[in-house]
Write a structure and sequence with these properties.
- By secondary structure, this protein is an alpha/beta fold.
- The chain has two domains: 188 residues, 3-Layer(aba) Sandwich (Rossmann fold); 33 residues.
- Strand 1, helix 1 and strand 2 form a beta-alpha-beta unit.
- Helix 6 packs antiparallel against helix 7.
- The chain starts with 8 loop residues before the first strand and ends in a 14-residue tail after the last helix.
């Protein structure tokens, strides 16, 4: 029996400025481990590093050209993609216009945000889907989740039972991607489920914000309204 993953390569791009210490890496690396276990070879690049020099940018393009599946894992920044990721996508799109790929290449996105609602990520998913269309990639789907702050950059394996649906989502997605498929709707639905009740997440997040404000000596200014008439 032929192995459908034989010779196929997966490339993970980390779009978070925190790099290997980020939640984006924790999520993306878990998926890569599942793809590796299924027979795919994998590679990881940090977007910020790829843009530091012409040499690194050239290596980014070479990695894209080698890949059969490209995974972009990133956080939501002000309802949008992080600026370095936007720049990288522009470079990749321009490169493909001048040097189109002869093989089928798929891309998918892993998006997470600090808001409790997964729906906040929809615009970022739409942007990535449109990028795939305009740059000549096949869109394989997205896995989006809210409450990303609860992970705090930890690997999924160390996040406990609260991420059981996230783990299932990646397991289901990996199985499909290894067979040449896309991210199943079942996986997207599992990924979108909240870890904990919204009120509890909000309570913990507010305590964390006030703790940081106290640490930096601005606790009394948290509720300031300097522009209120």
């Amino acid at each position: 029996m032929n192995n459908p993953t034989c010779g196929r390569k997966a490339l993970l791009f980390i779009g978070s400025p925190k790099g290997l210490k980020s939640t984006s890496y924790g999520l993306g690396s878990y998926l890569l481990k599942k793809l590796e276990a299924g027979g795919m070879s994998t590679e990881t690049q940090i977007i910020g590093s790829a843009l530091h020099s012409d040499e690194n940018t050239a290596k980014m393009h070479e990695a894209v050209e080698r890949a059969d599946l490209i995974v972009f894992s990133f956080p939501l920044y002000v309802d949008h993609l992080p600026a370095p990721l936007v720049q990288a996508l522009e470079f990749i799109a321009a490169r493909r216009m001048s040097k189109p790929s002869a093989k089928l290449q798929k891309i998918m996105a892993i998006v997470q945000c600090g808001f409790p609602e997964t729906l906040q990520n929809q615009s970022a998913c739409d942007i990535m889907r449109q990028f795939a269309k305009e740059a000549g990639f096949e869109w394989a789907g997205a896995l989006a989740m809210g409450m990303g702050g609860a992970l705090g950059g930890r690997p999924l394996e160390k996040a406990g039972g609260m991420v059981r649906n996230v783990v299932k989502a990646f397991d289901v997605s990996a199985a499909s991607l290894l067979q040449g498929g896309n991210v199943p709707d079942e996986a997207s639905a599992l990924m979108a489920k909240p870890f904990i009740p919204k009120w509890l997440y909000t309570f913990i997040a507010n305590r964390g914000m006030k703790s940081q404000a106290k640490k930096h000596g601005v606790l009394k200014q948290v509720y300031a309204r300097p522009y209120e008439p």
